Amino acid sequence: MSSVASQALSNRQDAAWRQRAAKVVPGGMTGHLNAASLPAGYPQFFERGEGCRVWDVDGNAYIDFMCSWGPNLLGHHRPEVDAAAQRQQALGDCLNGPTPRFVELAERFVARSAHADWVLFQKNGTDATTVSLMVARAATGKRKVLVATKAYHGADPWCTPVPAGVTSEDRAHLIQYTYNDVASLEAAADAAGNDLAAIVCAAFKHDLGIDQALPTPEFARRARELCDKAGAALILDEVRAGFRVHAGGSWETVGVRPDLSAWSKSIANGYALAAVTGVDALREAATRIYTTGSFWSGGVAMAAGLATLEIADAADVVGHVQRMGQRLRDGIEAQAASHGTPVRQTGPAALPLILFDDDPGFDKGAVFTVEALRRGVYMHPKHNMFLSLAHTEHDIDLALQATDPAFAAVAARFGRR
Amino acid sequence: MSSVASQALSNRQDAAWRQRAAKVVPGGMTGHLNAASLPAGYPQFFERGEGCRVWDVDGNAYIDFMCSWGPNLLGHHRPEVDAAAQRQQALGDCLNGPTPRFVELAERFVARSAHADWVLFQKNGTDATTVSLMVARAATGKRKVLVATKAYHGADPWCTPVPAGVTSEDRAHLIQYTYNDVASLEAAADAAGNDLAAIVCAAFKHDLGIDQALPTPEFARRARELCDKAGAALILDEVRAGFRVHAGGSWETVGVRPDLSAWSKSIANGYALAAVTGVDALREAATRIYTTGSFWSGGVAMAAGLATLEIADAADVVGHVQRMGQRLRDGIEAQAASHGTPVRQTGPAALPLILFDDDPGFDKGAVFTVEALRRGVYMHPKHNMFLSLAHTEHDIDLALQATDPAFAAVAARFGRR
Fold it and tell me: In a mutagenesis test of the A interface, which of B96, B130, B266 is the best target, namely the one with the most A β-carbons within 10 Å?
């Protein structure tokens, strides 16, 4: 079957699993993997991954541009990573203390980031952002935390984008600013007065459903200055961007170094892991806080992380995903122009976002992505996507063979411009 | 080497890893696995587990009574669990949606617990307790949560036992009661007035360094009544006790059913997983809250969980760990009496705690556990321990051969009574 032939996707198995899930899982599925947030036609349940391809439970194969929403950095079943994980699994994973892999991985983080003097490990991205706040507050004795409006920093009560089950006290010390807006950042810092513990910045602006934006050097530098002036901590949320924008840390691109960085998703190529790295000035505070988890020291994910970062650095993953993303972006740009269906492609090419002009309800995006899906390409209509080391030029070109008729479908439905 | 010969434990490798760790990890190690919270002589770093035995990085072997602080329910490297995990790993773990294992494991939870109508999965025990609070608050529209003084429910800002990095607002709506004290529970509920969202109870009282206590039926029933009266949710924290006290849920032993249960640790025999189960009345609220994690739907831990629970139920793990715990308890009781060094053994035998009389600083406990450690038995001087399906009568008897001279050492140092 050619990748570009439109398929009437079989979904019999998916429908059956959804029916079973509806009985035992609230709403059938929750969280960011809930297919209810995608256009009709997307599968909910998956069974297999290999390289940059995934298979749903009906056996439909897709060239995948979500990469498990980030974690799949090197491609599914990267042999060196799985072998390292299996070697550690054969010894032991969750024991009465950490394994040596804990130290080796911490050393690797410190070696590869100029602003990482120490490391704490966790399991979830939310753990890493939350631990960062705790370190900043313990270090400063202050409470206020600046966060950008609409930025996603996790799903604990202090940060989840949906207010159900959250109290106002959970967010009592958050002050909002607008990403890349220096004046709003200064106003927020003023509002914090003498009580500023931290400024939290996403590595770049990657809010759901709106254009992405790289940090401006002015914005990043001002965030650094305001923290220095107040004795507060600059926290960089690298959970989504980490390892795809710059090997040493995403703000190396603008020459600004954070005090704390929160990492997760791609560290271990899909094995569950998160980390906070910090500067020496915050080491003592990091010693005083108490956070822990039953599985945080598990050796298998750390062995996978060691192999992942070794490969990522040796293979220049950042360069590769940037080039593949740019190839996709160029092709999409040309197709959109040729079909008279203009799109905006924003943010780093390695984490692509494609939004149609004049498409406030993402209806064009839905037609486009569902048509691509039927041709074996899994994209997202309003969330940033992810490239991996497993995406080749050939994969990108195959995907573009699918997106061309998808643009044609958008033009047929909504007209040319 | 006999298990009872006193060893001068080699710790050269451990010391070397600690030195490296001190440079890149705050304090060298953090959290509950930090050996700094144990007497001098305990190893920090581990390399291997098999059945009920663990090996530290120097190759010292121990009969293990911590079971990775709970997760190791069936013994390390239980073949069926590892095989199920490997089968799923060969297909895919972290994908663009859950695998069918997600549904199958949810179905198993619902089938095995009378008070579980639905399931949400997470990674950490703290995730599960936090999600439970969010569901309760979303369902009730209320804010106050009753928690027992000194109870451990995780390490997020709302519950961590150490206040560094925590603001008073993080705990603004917590009201404390004393476990098993009906009057204090009623007073706390009164204090919540018309704003009671939930009462949180540990499956039994298992606070650090003090005698454990099973829930009294009066206490459990009153908690249920107070929730019913206020329309609040009764949340049972099963993270530590789950799967070792009663297969269907720990409070089946007192005939009281919670509205929400938080599970983790032992679900998947060491693979990272957590879950919240709830009753139908809270299903809609569970649909409205937004919590998620990059790895929460990973198929490997769920495949491991399916195999773990299948084995646990078929083999009557609860009965086995109770019997092995009782055999240990009986032996310890006799030895303590014969050496004139009285101890208190409290809580369920499957999660043993041994505290010496007249030992406020745990100095006797330290001598006892270090002497046992030198004879190849890993115990804890002030935290509850854990039995597993891999502990045999022979293992218990071997361990008792080590604890006898350990009691003698306590008597020699502190005198007989």
Answer: B96
Say if CB B60 and CB B53 are below 8 A apart: no
Q: Cα A280 vs. chain centroid, distance in angstroms?
A: 27
Instruction: Please name the residues in contact with B51: beta carbons below 8 A apart, sequence gap of 6 or more.
Output: B75, B76, B77, B390
User: Is B340 part of any domain?
Assistant: yes
Tokens representing B240 are 């530590």
Instruction: Check whether residue A264 and residue A301 sit in a common domain.
Output: yes
| Domain match, B335 and B253 both | no
Q: Where are the alpha helices (DSSP H) in A71-230?
A: 79-91, 100-112, 125-140, 182-192, 217-230
- What sign has the CA pseudo-torsion A17, A19, A20, A25? positive
What is the residue range of B288's domain? 79-314
Residue B21: which CATH number?
3.90.1150.10
pLDDT per residue over B44-95, tens digit each?
A: 999 999 999 999 999 999 999 999 999 999 999 999 999 999 999 999 999 9
List pLDDT tens digits, range A160-206.
999 999 999 999 999 999 999 999 999 999 999 999 999 999 999 99
Residue A45 to residue A22: CA distance in whole angstroms: 13
Name residues 209-248 of chain A within 8 A of B (Cβ).
Answer: 239
Choosing among A294, A302, A380, which should be mutated to test the B contact, i.e. which has the most B CBs within 10 A?
A294
| Domain co-membership, A164 together with A122 | yes
Min Cα distance A338 → chain B (Å) is: 31
pLDDT at B9: 81
Compute φ and ψ for A85, nearest 5 degrees.
-65, -45
End-to-end CA distance of chain B: 33
Q: What is the largest CA-CA distance in chain A?
A: 64
Nearest CB partner across the interface for B143, out of A167, A287, A301: A167
Residue-by-residue DSSP string for A201-255: EESSB--TTS--BPPPHHHHHHHHHHHHHHT-EEEEE-TTTTTTS-TT-GGGGGT
pLDDT at A239 exceeding the cut of 70:
yes
Please give the C-alpha separations between residue A225 and each of A26, A176, A189, A228, A230, in angstroms, as whole numbers: 46, 18, 11, 5, 9
Of B314, B345, B362, the domain-final residue: B314
> Do A371 and A28 contact (CB within 8 A), yes or no?
no
Tokens of A358: 């004049």
Same domain, B300 and B257: yes
Give dist(CA A213, CA B222) in Å, integer: 55
Q: If pLDDT is split at 50, 70 and 90, which confidence band does B3 have?
A: very low
Q: Do B31 and B170 reside in the same domain of the chain?
A: no
| Chain B residue numbers touching A158 (CB-CB < 8 A) | 157
pTM recorded for the entire structure = 0.97
Measured CA to CA, the distance from residue B117 to residue A396 in angstroms comes to 44
CA B368 to chain A, closest CA, distance in angstroms equals 19
Identify whether residues B170 and B204 lie together within a single domain: yes
Indicate if A53 and A152 belong to the same structural domain: no
- Residue B1 belongs to a domain: no
Domain count, chain A: 2
Q: Are the C-beta atoms of B124 and B291 separated by less than 8 Å?
A: no
Q: Do A299 and A328 reside in the same domain of the chain?
A: no
> What whole-number percentage of chain B has pLDDT above 90?
98
- Evaluate if residue B205 carries a pLDDT over 50: yes
**Beta carbons of B96 and A26 less than 8 Å apart:** no
Q: What is the pLDDT of residues B19-34, one digit of tens each?
A: 999 999 999 999 999 9
Q: Can you tell me the distance from the alpha carbon of B103 to that of B114, in angstroms, rounded to the nearest whole number?
A: 18
Domain boundary residue, one of A314, A330, A363 = A314
Alpha-carbon distance of B26 to A118, in angstroms, equals 6
